[in-house]
Design a protein that fits this description.
This is Ribonuclease PH. By secondary structure, this protein is α+β, with helices and mostly antiparallel strands. The protein is built from 6 helices and 9 strands. 32% of the residues lie in helices and 29% in strands.
Length: 237
């Protein structure tokens, strides 16, 4: 039995609330159970210097956790003067995931920055950020199209992410913090709406996991992603 009493293939309650930021071109407050992440998409008419004159745009992400997103206060990374390796890894993952479904040529020489700020952390913050970040990005692109800045949408597909793991010997979907901290295996899957894999991160926390367990986690992830993409579609309808 999982601590949350959920079935092995059951997501936590997921909510995607759009338009939560007054000033951002796109925004979404995403909730996976007790994990809450505010995602905002901001348009910049300039691209990074290495892309100038290329005719291509760019989608990137920044990620951070508020000091009391966890049970004990964390020092702001800005106060420390540098980002942690974990923060840089996660924001690069979010950016890669969103670019995977964006036609950067169709976007033109513009940059969209998706900021993902964790309000409450209870496991799966990076997967929630990718799922909510896509909604914020979609709203930003809709904002641009309404102002005739784009003739067609550069978004080619949905993308969402979910965690899986082996907990108490059983593959399970969407780990909360209690499960994540005790899981024998921890994995994250980033998948498009059409079912293509963008990224798979999996590591054994104790005993190595088997190929059969990896296949079982992937099957669980696909079911979870199907549900998340349905929720994305309903959110932007």
């Amino acid at each position: 039995m999982r601590p949350s009493k959920r079935a092995a293939d059951e997501l936590r309650p997921v909510r995607l609330e759009r338009g939560v930021s007054r000033h951002a071109e796109g925004s979404c407050l995403v909730r996976f159970g007790d994990t809450e992440v505010l995602c905002t998409a901001s348009l910049d008419d300039k691209v990074p210097g290495w892309l100038r004159g290329s005719g291509k745009g760019w989608v990137t992400a920044e990620y951070g956790m508020l000091p009391r997103a966890t049970t004990e206060r964390m020092r702001r990374e800005a106060a420390a003067g540098r980002q942690s390796g974990r923060t840089m890894e996660i924001q690069r993952l979010i950016g890669r995931s969103l670019r995977a479904v964006t036609d950067l040529v169709a976007l033109g020489e513009r940059q969209i920055v998706v900021d993902c700020d964790v309000i409450n952390a209870d496991g799966g913050t990076r997967t929630a950020a990718i799922t909510g970040g896509w909604v914020a990005l979609s709203d930003c692109i809709t904002w641009m199209m309404r102002r005739e800045m784009l003739a067609t949408s550069p978004l080619r597909d949905h993308v969402a992410a979910v965690s899986c793991g082996v907990y108490a010997g059983t593959p399970v979907l969407d780990l909360d913090y209690l499960e994540d901290s005790e899981a024998e295996t921890d994995a994250n899957f980033v998948v498009t709406g059409s079912g293509k894999l963008v990224e798979v991160q999996a590591s054994a926390e104790g005993a190595p996991f088997s190929e059969a367990e990896l296949v079982a986690m992937l099957a669980l992830a696909r079911r979870g992603i199907d549900r998340l993409v349905d929720l994305q579609r309903m959110a932007i309808a």
